Fold these 2 entries.
Entry 1:
Amino acid sequence: MIDLLQALTNGVFLGAVFALAAVGLSLVFGVTNMVNFAHGDFIMLAMYVGFLCWSLAGIDPLFAIPIAAVTLALVAVLIYGGIIRPVLGSTQLAQMVVTFGLLTFLRGVVQFAFTADPRRVEDPIVGDVRIAVGGVAVTGAQLVSAVGALVATGALAWFIHRTETGRALQAVGEDPGGASLMGINSGRMYGLAWALAGVSTGVAGALLINNFGIDPLAGATFGIMSFIAVALGGFGSVLGAAFAGLLLGVVQGVVGLYLSGYTLTAALGIYLLVLVVRPQGLRGTR
Amino acid sequence: MFQRVTARRGRILAAMAAAAMFAVPACSASDADSAASDVKEIKIGTPLPLSGPNAALGKDALQGAELAADIINNGLPGLKLPLANDKGIPNLNHAKFKIVSADTQGKPENGASAVNHLVNDEKVDILAGALESGVTKTAAQQAERLKVPFVTSISSSPALTQAGLKWFFRTGPTDVTYAQSFFGLLDEEKKKNVSADKIALLYMNNTFGTDAAGVAKNLAQANNKQIVADVPFDPAATDLTSQVQQVRAANPDTVFVVAYPPTATLFVNATEQLDYMPSAVMAFGAGFINDAFIQSAGDKLEGMSRRVAWSEDLGNRNPASKLVADEFKKRYKAPLTENSARVFTTIMAMAQVFNNAKSVEPEDVRSALVSLDIPGRDTIMPWDGIKFDDQHQNTGARAVVEQRLDGQWKVVYPKDIRSQEIVWPASDARKK
């Protein structure tokens, strides 16, 4: 029983990070109707930003969160303006090629700049923290990652659903033409969606470096899990993606306990099941 | 839809094909006549993962190859190894070695295409790579089709040399040799009346991991050991806590871990989170060899053991090995590792192969490989030497077991060359 509780706890903690990563991807799809295949690599970039903060200025990952968030927001906006906006009206194939190209480019640039050697932040503030309650243990890094991810996910959801700008974002996602007639600048909203996706990956990346190694492929698995979460939750549904991210984490934790070699298979299996039973995803509207 | 071929066009195509068939051997024969005198450069193709999850390992291996080629070409003062100071291959007019690399990205599907590129485009004379057993498998099969000698150093899956390939050779130990060193150590511990019979396997469910686990299971049966947990995991996993919980629940004396660097980090994190340290952790594979991983894991590795084909601890006792290790560190600002030492040794052995063959013709080179016999003292490895058996596996390859103690890897097995006895249980190593 303790083992199951431990697996569930780990799953929820990991799922919180999946949720935050998935929210950014879902937002970009929901607003621009475009799938960013380089989303996981934004997380990897954020990890390197956090690593640079620590190695050059001694800034702990916890305090590097706002720096990574702002940096990734800027990077995302630049990428949007430079290579995404020109293909927004193109075919989906053209958009896929662009974001696939971006994925390869980002990995290549990072490997060139930092080499492929795995990096790690040594002795983060939460590094030696370990809390055990009734036989269930969590590390400080896990706790910080999960709480930080849940807070950031909640803040993003609040912004999208409770603010005027957030509603404008949703309006553009629903009907860009109609939104323009109402005086909403669709182009700016698209840029904002990318910026918010940058913020979510920035926060996720900075949180992850407390207990994950940093290398040019560090974001790959998080990218895959984000895709599954977005598809599972319903393309375009931010809350659906967040919920699905948490679910995926729990599935990985529990399946890892009983069928250790099939964690990714189980995640994909659930996605396929939902695809058959409810093709629009758990909370999909499209 | 396919084009229809008319009878006349068919005859022309057939004639051209026949001409091509005869033309190729004619060229080869003509080349062979002048081979020895014309050779100025010997190209060695190294398919390695230079990007992807194992890129750091690939870079390390490539540096081992480049250092060996440079020593063959330009010498290294004071190094007493065969052909180390002959400035090229003496029997081939002092032809120089040139390393030509190709990136496999660590993907099996890229192994064959990397070999194709190296052989057909780069015209390499021999292949030395790859790294992951799954990639080496596809690369070796392609080299077999192209009839080009392929010598691997790092890939340890026994199946590679059991496939009956004519052109494939391996200088390094297999997983059987590696695992035997662990079982030998466990037997020594057993003689001291400590509990060392229960083994848990925690391994990646890829070619390397499943092969290594298979070998461990067979040897466990042969050595009267009990496998109490069999826990595979996905190499792309983001967390191994549940898997380590499974291992802990079985209460093993020893955990065999097979992991590449990213998952080796997850394993170490999970043991910390669960505050779990079995009597012994014995690591297979490159995950526990990568210097960046070792540096970043720091104290968390204390007490854990690994098997290696080259040991810095032993190397310091061998003047040639120490000289090469120092030179490697000077050039690349990184320590010589088991992987780079194995590739270095293979390239140095290739110098003797070409020198003995007096030719770069594939069949001559293959024959020279088959009859190669280098004594252990002429290498930087703690091996008996390099001599291939019928399956083209080096019979002289050996492995040693090291344990992380006070931030250093110390040889703890075999008994005759160890620096000290293993600290058992491993948790005692952390009490200092």
Entry 2:
Amino acid sequence: MSDRPAYTEFHPRWYRRPISTWWWLGKRTYLLFILRELSSLSVAWFVVFMLLLVRAVGQGDAEYQRFLDRVDHPLVVLLNLVALAFVTFHMVTWFNLTPQAMVIRAGGRRVRPSWIMVSQYVAWLIVSAFVVWLLVGA
Amino acid sequence: MSSRSAQRKSRPPVEPFLWLGFTSGGVLAALFAPILLFLFGIAFPLGWIDPPDREHLLAVVSNPVAVVVMFVVLSLGLLHAAHRFRYTLYDGLRMQHLNELIAMLCYGGAVLGSVASAYVLLTMA
Amino acid sequence: MANTIVLQVARYRPEVETEPVMQEYDVPLRDDWAVLDGLNHVKDHLDGTLSYRWSCRMGICGSCGMTVNGEPKLTCATFLTDYAPGPVRVEPLQNFPVIRDLVVELGDFMRKLPKVNPWLVREEELPVSHGEYLQTPDEVDEYKQFSMCINCMLCYAACPVYGLDPEFMGPAAIALAQRYNLDSRDQGGPDRLEVLIEPEGLWGCTFVGECTRVCPKDVDPAGAIQRYKLTAATASLKRILLPRGAR
């Protein structure tokens, strides 16, 4: 894009403040934003974790038991605790921001933002209850 | 609509689709990740709840509907994570000069992961 | 309460300095004084060489945007007593080149704004005999919030994406594009989309949300941009799935 103004000989020098790589530590809101974005790593771990689980289940009783034993290790529990915290942070920020990002109409009128937010949490409760029932109940 | 727009570049932009994948992956991750990480990462290992025995789990994950749902959740979850992480590197760590490399690694990783998911899910029955 | 407060003001005189320096001034601390009043006191009584922009002093012209204690603010709407006992750090608006003291160069925004066609675009203008374009109150409400923008640039100062990537179109420009997209009289949506569907248009935004937080007119540019992303994505989907288009 060559529509920047050309510098003439007597054009004053403009000061451009350099932005550091650690810009996101400068403000609390920036830090929270970066943490929210880093929750993507926990989502990736969740996927990997699920694949390891499914593979262990498919390979036999011994493999499944070995998987359960490995997951019981304190470092793995800690990892999963951190991952759980991050994906929960992802969930809360995602549900809370959706009403701002979306205008939904029902019957010609705008659905109230608070309803959009609450309905997502309700959906999450239903999905979670279903998963628990599927795996533990029955 | 206007013929002017039709004459402009005909290659479809990829960003809108990446964003749609990111959004759907985000919703699915928000719905499924917390409870599954809680159960298999905390509750079962620490003995708060008895883990399901292998036969029951195998029955659940072999179910065709479950396979489809899991594949969708896992692959879109990976796409969501790849998209978000790519932008985090681009903005957070100011790696604009490596933009193409980062995009390739992130989305490439997501694609590989999805292929791996399909393989694991389909070869387990 | 003390009756004076210290203003730490960034000075930058390109003819003598290569970097801004801070200079302190003692200004009266009055209940009804905003930071702008403090700056005017400095200019009128203490140091006539201080350069800064201001105009309406009532939060509608968008001229007096500066960084106050690290936050982008309209200095006419930011009261000294809120920072008592001080000091109050006044710096030029972030993410823009500084010309002198507190004056920043806004050319980048001025060049970006026309690119989104921020005016009513009609395929065919209706004849004068047709009369006005009528709108229901609901149709006005669709875009009214986004029409409140005063181009004060606080959102650009707050947006980390714009700071890191000056090619990014930026919150106000995209929100203004959306203001016209949502206007029932407008038919220019597809042309705006052509411009904003580039990576440095809509998709550069990562929904940090800082722009909405600092906006003095509650425009909510972040919301406008996210809504626009959905519109743009579904438009792209339709273009792929229905090439001849239901138009």
